Amino acid sequence: MRIGFYTSTFNDRPLEEVVDFAASSGFDAIEIDVGGHIKRPDHVEAAVELARSRDLFVSSITYFGNQLDADRGKRRELRARTSEFASAIGEAGVPIFVIFPGRDDAASEEANYDDFADFVKELIAKTQSFGLTFAIENWPGPKDNFIGTTPRGWQELFRRIEDRRFGLEFDPSHLIRIGVDPYRAMEAVKDRIAILHAKDTAIDRESLQAVGYHGKGWWQYKLPGLGLLDWPRFLRQARGYDFDGTLSIEHEDAAYGWPGKDLSARKEGERLGLDYLKNVLNGL
Fold first, then answer.
1. Contact, 94 vs 129, CB < 8 A?
2. For position 187, what pLDDT does the model report?
3. CA–CA distance, 237 with 196 (Å, rounded to integer)
4. For labelling alongside 238, which of 32, 107, 197, 262 has CA 20 to 30 A away?
5. Which residues, at least 6 apart from 6, have a Cβ–Cβ distance to it below 8 Å?
6. Which residues form the Xylose isomerase-like TIM barrel domain (predicted)?
7. pLDDT of residue 87
């Protein structure tokens, strides 16, 4: 497995500085954020070549946005832009394009799944010659209601999108905080995992007791190894499924400078995550 990180942690820094840090720190790969580091589709090739010039594998490019936005104008605009990025990413030879399904609160559950699945199938058809894989991260969204972010939701999408060029950026941290067993969840989708997000979650049981699941402050995202996930078990399980893709650290640990605070602390967090994951993989 390659180990990389998602550049969103450094969206306030130029990409050249970010890839220099990644290469000098010993990372194998990089996951580039569109919002922070690739503003337009015609910038994709230069960004990818910059990373490759530092001997970094570009594991994926990630584009945040609600693909089911209730505002039809915004939805059309986002999807047109997504389609443009898909072509540029495919042409650049990057294997995975990560997007987010979102949700239209005014539409039915079935309509949301049908609509998003139809759009993904259009993207798959458009990029057939590149073999580009599309993946969704299982982040539940700001209202904790994005479709396709739970085991049942994944199956709803996979039933509609049978092509294996659609899969998951599987992130165990989100599952922990919503009460889903990440090991059982991974078992059920082992053949649809395109990339793994390396992020953990810590839960303060006393705070949870005080405020309940709908309260705030009882959970925090953490760097790998600083939360509840049993990483040796998790990565042994992934390896047992012949997963040999990228482990992409998504650093959102407030104890190490996130979001956008002390730069040296953010870098320290990335290095700690890298060292931890290397040690786990070496011990499997």
1. no
2. 98
3. 12
4. 32
5. 31, 33, 62, 197, 248, 249, 250, 251
6. 19-271
7. 98
d(CA 223, CA 138): 17
Q: Return all residues near 100 (Cβ < 8 A) that are at least 6 apart.
A: 64, 65, 66, 67, 136, 137, 139, 141, 146
pTM of the predicted structure, to 2 decimals: 0.97
Q: What b/e sequence results for 99-111 when a residue is b if at least 16 CB atoms lie within 10 Å of its CB, and e otherwise?
A: bbbbbbeeeeeee
Scan for tokens 């987010």, then name that residue. Answer: 100
Tens digits of per-residue pLDDT, 178-188?
Answer: 999 999 999 99
> 232-281, pLDDT tens digit by residue?
999 999 999 999 999 999 999 999 999 999 999 999 999 999 999 999 99
* 259 prior amide bond cis, ω within 30: yes
What local confidence, expressed as pLDDT, does residue 195 receive?
98
Q: From CA 6, how far away is CA 31, in angstroms rounded?
A: 5
Task: Mention every residue, 6+ apart, whose C-beta is less than 8 A from residue 136.
Answer: 98, 99, 100, 101, 148, 149, 157, 168, 169
Tokens of 222: 């953490």
- The angle that helices 72-91 and 44-53 make with each other, rounded to 10 degrees, is 40
pLDDT of residue 230: 98
CB 69 within 8 A of CB 100: no
Average pLDDT over residues 127-145: 96
DSSP state of 149: -
